[in-house]
Amino acid sequence: MILLLGISWSGFSQKDYKLWLQYNTLTNLDLKAKYLSHIKGITLLGNSETISIAGNELQSALEDMLEKKITVNTKLEVFQSIVIGSKTHLNAEIQKTVESDLNLINDEGFIIKSIVINNKSHIVITGKKEVGVLYGVYSFLRLIQTNKSIEKLNIADSPKTNIRILNHWDNLDRTVERGYAGFSLWNWQKLPDFIEQRYIDYARANASIGINGTVLTNVNANALILTPQYLEKVEALANVFRPYGIKVYLTARFSAPIEIGGLKTADPKDADVANWWKAKAKEIYVRIPDFGGFLVKANSEGQPGPQNYGRNHVDGANMLADAVAPFGGVIMWRAFVYSEHDANDRAKQAHAEFQPCDGKFRENVIVQVKNGAIDFQPREPFHPLFGAMTKTPLMMEFQITQEYLGFSTHLVFLPKLFQEVLESDTYQKGKGSTVTKVIDGSIYKNKITGIAGVANIGNDLNWTGHPFAQANWYGFGRLAWNPYLDSETIADEWLRCTFSNDKKFIAPIKEMLIQSREAVVNYMTPLGLHHIMDTGHHYGPGPWVSNLSRPEWNPVYYHKADKNGIGFDRSKSGTNAVSQYAPEVAVIFDKLETCPEKDLLWFHHVSWDYKLKDGHTLWDGMALKYQQGVNQVAAMQKTWNASEKYVDSERFKEVQMLLNIQYKEAKWWRDACLLYFQQFSGKELPIGVEKPS
Ligand code: GCU
Q: What CATH number is attached to the domain comprising 670?
């Protein structure tokens, strides 16, 4: 321990920084002995950078967890070893043992298998490509991190989506739009020559959960990123990320040909404009041969786009697609569009603009759709575009950063939210046409598939601001790899890798994580309420706000509370947004009696006296939900306080302080919303709901 001016620096944030790659020493000695009986060394086959990263990771993690020196060889020795190498580097004997397994995986997949060669047992970790080996190594290490058996292993696993990507909303001045974990990781001023250790650690963390792409810049794009001065910096980052299997992508500002190209227009039908983009793409690919492509926000919230020139999304996306196609690039064209000129129902606009474009996009265009039709709310019904475009690949856009969910102050385990959306049945190709099956391409047999997550990462010591927000980065990656994973499994894995394998810790804290999502819904937006956060920053309640210039920016537009009731009527007799869903779904949402209560006020304007399924009136039920949210946070505090002995004091205190704030703010939400809505309902608070103090 170093004592400097009386301040103790011991253990300073190291645990926080190490994310889920803690590799804690095993405390269960029997288990440790069992693992050691299978691991006498490492055999490294092949000598690429990726394989050496995999070898180093394996060696140092095993040494940390098992407290034993593990030797690394490049030939199969007599002892039992972990053999790692891609298919082409395996010797004939080993190849034979995994031949049929290799048919089960795709190019990024891996095999982990217990094999016997010359009477010696080994564990082979292999894949068709070296990045698969790296993924396999992380998966193998996770078995040990989570105290699973490594006997008789026979695992064949592949990612279910092609593009598993983080979207950084990072500006060139290092501010991060909707970022609550410090400034941007990308130190543009010092790049390209100064490579921060963070870039490597970032790549490592992402590779460990299978993330294979990163969009470095904000969707509200700055054309400067496409100038040579910045491209050489992007190239430096791409070089760092490449051995970890991570491709770099950029956001393309549609008006870049004017802003940095000296052209008079950015009209996608103008030959000079198309040629400018072609030349720009070539320039990028000369530097970064595996550049992923562009993410584009066009004609949304003031961003320029093809509609500025009387063209449409297809014209814009296809023009860019043609520029990157010769190099294998893709265009991720966002469907997050809404305009003040159609104030009827913002929720309908993306479907109305995009569905008619189905089948008109180039093969290397994928349309990126937010999980819900408004904007990353604590709960939204799934976006009606999912399943509604049969000839166009759609990728999911989740928001990992908690713009509407209490920033990095509130503890909310997002995989639960993500899972709910992914499991929703669109019925677009009959029962079982879940959102997952749309985005993994299994329903419409799409060639490109993907999941994007708006990153919650910044240069905070712990990366994500809240220690538990790391779970949302982790969970996003795991779901992007396998969108069928259960959020409980993810919570279990993350807790074991990040904190402890002690059952007495895992059981209650896992429950806390799982409940945390419903808690935030309850104290912010129960029963289908949405977008009632204070405007601009979106932190804290603001259901009363009504003075913003655009109608759909005002919370009153969304809750429509009056003396008759509350909620947005999107039924057939309202804006008819329900009609954008498949008939089987539309009919359920349309009727008050069949609409799930969790989505009630999303689809209906409901009288204060309406009887909910549990017999309470809507007013009473809503008030009780707000109270329940507060109670749930109180329970989270209690659970956390009881876990003190299992957690290092630094993280324990951080989470404790944050939960205290969350509790205060849950009450703030409850009191503010109930007092405001009470003006319309004119009713007393029911028994069981605390009166505002
Ligand atoms: C939200 C968010 C903006 C962001 C936008 C987008 O509206 O508040 O900051 O730019 O989404 O996704 O494009």
A: 3.90.1330.10
In single-letter form, the type of residue at position 371 comes to N
Closest atom, ligand 1, to C-alpha of 178: 9
Whether 153 and 249 share a structural domain: no
- Report how far ligand 1's centroid is from the alpha carbon of 346 (Å): 14
Q: Which helix (H) or strand (E) element contains residue 43?
A: strand 41-44
CA-nearest residue for atom 1, ligand 1, is 375
Return the residue whose CA atom lies nearest to atom 12 of ligand 1: 336
**134 and 220 co-located in one domain:** no
Q: Which of 167, 169, 337, 530 to mutate to test the pocket of ligand 1 (most atoms within 8 A of CB)?
A: 169
Give residue 84's pLDDT: 97
What pLDDT was estimated at residue 339? Answer: 75
Q: What is the pLDDT of residue 112?
A: 98
* Ligand 1 mutation pick, 301, 407, 534, max ligand atoms within 8 A of CB: 301
Q: Which atom number of ligand 1 is nearest to the Cα of residue 403?
A: 8
Q: Round to whole Å and give the CA distance between 22 and 648.
A: 12
Range of the domain at 197: 163-498
- Expressed in angstroms and rounded, the spacing between residue 220 Cα and the centre of ligand 1 is 8
Asked if 528 and 379 touch (Cβ cutoff 8 Å), the reply is yes
Q: Looking at the structure, do residues 147 and 231 belong to the same domain, yes or no?
A: no
* 509-526 residue pLDDT tens: 999 999 999 999 999 999
Is 590 part of any domain? Answer: no
Residue 7 is predicted with a pLDDT of 44
R_g of the chain, CA atoms, integer Å: 26
Residue listed under structure tokens 């909707």: 178
> Is the distance from the beta carbon of residue 531 to the nearest atom of ligand 1 less than 6 Å?
no
Residues 528 and 481 in one domain: no
- The number of distinct structural domains making up the chain is 3
- 251 Cα: distance to centroid of ligand 1 (angstroms): 14
- The DSSP string of 229-278 is HHHHHHHHHHHHHGGGT-EEEEE--TTHHHHTT--S---TT-HHHHHHHH
- Short-list 405, 692, 390, 361, CA closest to 522: 405
Q: Is the CB of residue 375 below 6 angstroms from any atom belonging to ligand 1?
A: yes
ipTM: 0.99
Report CA-CA distances (Å) from 578 to 181, 268, 418, 586, 605. Answer: 37, 34, 22, 5, 14
Give dist(CA 296, CA 656) in Å, integer: 40
| In a domain? residue 693 | no
From 178, 303, 383, 405, mutation site for ligand 1 pocket: most ligand atoms within 8 A of C-beta? 178
Active-site annotation, residues: 301, 375, 403
Q: 494 and 626 share a domain?
A: no
In a domain, 513, yes or no: no
Q: Is 273 found in the same domain as 226?
A: yes
Positions in the chain short of pLDDT 70:
1-13, 78, 340-343
Ligand 1 centroid to Cα of residue 224, in Å, is 20
Q: Smallest Cα–Cα separation from 210: which of 479, 416, 499? A: 479
Last residue of a domain, one of 124, 157, 190: 157
